[in-house]
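Repro:
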Amino acid sequence: MKPVKADFDILVASISDLRGTRAKLEADRCAIGARMREVLEAPPDKGVLKGMMRRVIEGFSEVWNRPLIERLECLKTGITPDEFVNRHVSVARNTEFVQDNGWFCLLAPAMLHSVDHFIDRLDWPDGLSDEERAARLAKLQAELDANVAKMTAIDEQFSQMGVHPIRPDKAVV
């Protein structure tokens, strides 16, 4: 017959080792999460920034075009060019009226034309391209998945022993 004390000591040592391994895996998981957060919070590179700016300007343009197109329709119905000019010049002092009448839409082409020059002159950190960000996140996600799989296996061992993986005073039955 095997001595019970020796088996108990081996079990306690095994539980202690598993808790130590799990604690290290938990610390690694937190570190991976911090690295993922760094990647997510990294600024975009200038190429991505230019694309974002273009999309915003195109969105502006869609909104700004409608009012001017509506205002131009009156030229089809018989208003004279002079009447059209007089109506619109009279609102020039108030930028709100200028915007409401759609004249801001003429800014969009100039904005699109100058966005590259504007971004190139910015004091901007190197940043990440969309592809680089996705690749880094995929690599970190693979590390995280492997880490979680190891933690799950350890938790299963604790469960089979009837021991709580973190709190020694709790039993899992």
